[in-house]
Write a structure and sequence with these properties.
The structure holds 2 protein chains of 2 kinds.
Chain A (H helix, E strand, L loop, with lengths): L4 H11 L9 H13 L3 H10 L8 H33 L6 E2 L1 H8 L12 E4 L5 H10 L2 E3 L4 H10 L6 E3 L5 E5 L14 H4 L3 E2 L5 E2 L2 H13 L7 H15 L6 H11 L2 H15 L5 H9 L4 H14 L10 H18 L2 H21 L10
Parallel strand pairs in A: 1-7, 2-5
Antiparallel strand pairs in A: 1-2, 3-4, 4-5, 6-7
Helix pairs in contact in A: 2-4, 3-4, 9-10, 9-11, 9-12, 10-12, 11-12, 14-15
Chain B lengths: L2 E7 L2 E7 L2 H10 L5 E2 L8 E7 L10 E6 L8 E2 L3 H16 L3 E11 L2 E6 L6 H9 L4 E4 L2 E5 L4 E3 L5 E4 L1 H9 L9 E4 L2 E6 L3 H5 L5 E11 L6 E5 L1 H10 L4 H4 L1 H12 L2 E7 L2 H12 L4
Parallel strand pairs in B: 2-4, 8-15, 15-17
Antiparallel strand pairs in B: 1-2, 1-3, 4-5, 5-6, 7-8, 7-9, 7-10, 10-11, 11-15, 12-14, 13-14, 16-17
Chain lengths: 371, 290
């Protein structure tokens, strides 16, 4: 896959933090901007400090990194607090929520938690309890976000989650899921296969099992249509795999879960792009097993073209016409996987019309100026 | 023609670009005393740009958009407010990213590196007081953002133009006819605003930190006779927190920094209409006698 010099630099900072010592100051201005745009500045700082080379980065760079790490640390604290609150509130109605993705990483304080920036707290709950859960949350100051009617219907009718709830005082956003992908895709797994063996965090909250978390993060990434955080998310997986490589217990369970739930391709893609982008330390046996579940050559070639590019850091200067074109293909691919055509076509038509209108007329043409 | 300037605004370096002539004029006038760097070979902390909203919108009731660090945090404003938008956007760059300082929404002024900070919500007369003092021989360290060095009672200057609102624009003109004011941006969120060019001496001292000796909470009210209350440490502490941008982000470090500040300074609340009174009080009662 082709990438910009800056994209290559960002990748290198993940795999080889020492490379940062050789980056010139004017180049660092660009690198910091791009890292901030992709929510990766704090993480790069964490990796550099872990590699013992952060103090050898230029002083102004260290200052930006220090700020980003302070913000990330605060977010992690906040996420753990909110998770505790949510769990306590839902315990009243007999629901034990399972935390997913970023919130789960923070609660477990695992390799992907360090320097992780995220915007919402993802929770998995049993579908039959949804109404009660919503009532309970509203009483506790969590309000559904105001959405356009269209988007509201989209959520309710077709997806695996309810519209995001935000806390009116603290501004935190909780995404309440009842499955991992939209049931309308026809591929939503038997959620019990993911939830039957949760793990308990140090403060007594629950997340998916390690293999469940990794597989869900892979599904989430490769079923998505939107890759603005793709680089961060694939980097999460790289760090989780690397951490897993230190132990030996989970790999076979991971593969089994993928097979049982029908997400072999997503696990393979997680493996493939971690390997290509970050040279992750997969055990040899797992590498061989991955070859047995690899999609066909032609499918892999298409994936390499679309996903291989969409997963690169999407900094502003990388947005060439060609790159934007690839992102549109990624958008179509993601929708295609999640929705049958009878639903997908009207949806794309609506979103497409808005997009065309805004790109022709200018994004702000239909907005009033702030008064 | 797009203007592109790399300017040292200690403790930061900003790159400012704009295709709007009024903004270009503003940058040349109000940032003319700062050190300008060549583009392309400096480390840039923050990149800001103010330009007309693209495409059709530039034809009907033109709007100005602010882009900071490749982000677009605000909705566009009428094009006539573009230079004010630039200033607010530059503040946003700092408040949205900075955690190396405890940031208080406050004016900061000093004499002989002894600084007084004036924390206050909008509308309390902070900027008018700041402009008055800055133009009467005090050193301006900041109008909006007090950057307190962590775990110290010292403050880092961030010298920028002072944002006057409504009636204070004319008042200041009458007191200091030589002051350089920007065009007035009418009917903004804060009313009519104009920015005062910072005194050259303050700009040149832009890297000299100062020690906080006093915290004064200003309350301007028309016709009010000067009334001064001394605050105890806990009152000063709480009011500082109320005016802080990133206190909660800094956590324990925010707390210990404020402890350093209130342990070593005096705190006052001052209700006034006469700025001369205030200036005299500050000089005589708060600044250590030499």
């Amino acid at each position: 896959m082709s990438m910009t010099r800056l994209q290559r630099q960002l990748l290198t900072l993940i795999t080889e933090p020492r490379a940062g010592i050789g980056i010139t100051l004017p180049e660092w201005s660009e690198v910091i901007l791009a890292l901030r745009e992709t929510d990766m500045l704090a993480r790069v700082g964490y990796l550099a400090s872990q590699a013992g080379c952060l103090t050898r980065y230029p002083k102004p760079v260290q200052r930006h990194i220090q700020s980003a790490r302070a913000l990330a640390f605060r977010q992690q604290q906040q996420a753990c607090y909110e998770a505790g609150e949510l769990s306590q509130q839902l315990a009243d109605i007999g629901v034990a929520p399972l935390f997913l993705k970023g919130a789960a990483y923070s609660l477990l304080d695992n390799a992907a938690a360090q320097g992780r920036i995220y915007s919402d707290i993802d929770v998995l709950v049993p579908k039959p309890d949804l109404i009660e859960i919503q009532k309970k949350l509203v009483v506790n100051s969590w309000m559904p976000k105001a959405l356009e009617d269209y988007d509201e219907r989209y959520y309710r009718d077709w997806t695996h989650e309810i519209p995001p709830m935000h806390h009116v005082l603290r501004g935190t956003v909780a995404d309440i899921h009842h499955n991992l992908i939209p049931p309308v895709s026809g591929k939503a797994p038997d959620i019990g296969l993911f939830t039957h063996n949760p793990q308990q965090t140090a403060n007594g909250l629950l997340t998916l099992s390690t293999e469940g978390l990794i597989l869900h993060s892979s599904i989430h990434l490769f079923y998505n249509e939107e890759f603005s955080h793709g680089f961060r998310d694939i980097c999460d997986l790289h760090l989780l795999f690397n951490e897993l490589a230190l132990t030996d217990t989970c790999w076979s369970r991971l593969l089994k879960l993928a097979k049982d739930t029908g997400f072999e391709s997503e696990l393979y893609y997680a493996f493939r792009y971690c390997d290509i982008l970050f040279h992750t330390a997969f055990p040899d046996r797992f590498r061989r097993q991955m070859q047995t579940i690899a999609p066909s050559r032609s499918r892999t070639a298409v994936a390499d073209f679309i996903l291989g590019h969409a997963l690169l850091p999407q900094h502003k200067s990388a947005m060439t016409l060609r790159y934007k074109g690839i992102l549109i293909l990624a958008l179509i691919r993601g929708h295609w996987l999640k929705m049958p055509l009878r639903i997908l076509l009207p949806h794309l038509a609506y979103k497409g019309w808005k997009g065309v209108r805004d790109s022709l007329a200018g994004k702000h043409t239909f907005e009033r100026a702030e008064k | 023609m797009t203007l592109r300037r790399v300017i040292e605004l200690p403790p930061y370096t900003f790159e400012i670009s704009s295709g709007i002539p009024a903004v270009q004029h503003y940058v040349d006038s109000h940032y003319g005393d700062y050190i300008q760097l060549g583009t392309g070979n400096a480390f840039i902390d923050h990149r800001v740009q103010v330009d007309k909203a693209p495409n059709l919108r530039s034809l009907i009731r033109p709007q100005a958009c602010f882009y900071g660090n490749h982000d677009e945090p605000f909705k566009p404003l009428p094009a006539s407010q573009a230079h004010a938008l630039l200033e607010w956007g530059m503040n946003w760059c700092i408040t949205s990213t900075e955690a190396n300082y405890l940031i208080i929404h406050a004016g900061v002024l000093a004499k002989n590196d002894q600084a007084i900070i004036f924390p206050a919500p909008p509308g309390s007369g902070k900027s008018t007081l700041t402009a008055y003092l800055a133009l009467s021989g005090w050193r301006l360290l900041s109008d909006e953002l007090a950057l307190i060095n962590l775990d110290t009672n010292t403050v880092t200057p961030f010298v920028r133009p002072i944002c006057l609102k409504n009636q204070s624009i004319d008042l200041l003109r009458s007191w200091f006819p030589a002051a350089v004011l920007s065009d007035i941006a009418r009917n903004t969120q804060k009313g009519d605003v104009a920015h005062v060019k910072p005194p050259q001496a303050s700009v040149l001292a832009g890297r000299d930190t100062a020690t906080i000796v006093g915290v004064v909470f200003p309350h301007y009210k028309v016709g009010k006779e000067t009334t001064i209350y001394q605050l105890d440490m806990s009152e000063t502490f709480i009011q500082l927190i109320n005016n802080a941008f990133n206190y909660s982000i800094l956590g324990a470090q925010g707390f210990s920094t404020l402890t350093h500040v209130v342990d070593r300074c005096v705190g006052f609340e001052i209700h006034y209409s006469d700025l001369q009174d205030v200036a005299q009080f500050l000089a005589e009662e708060i600044l250590p006698s030499k």
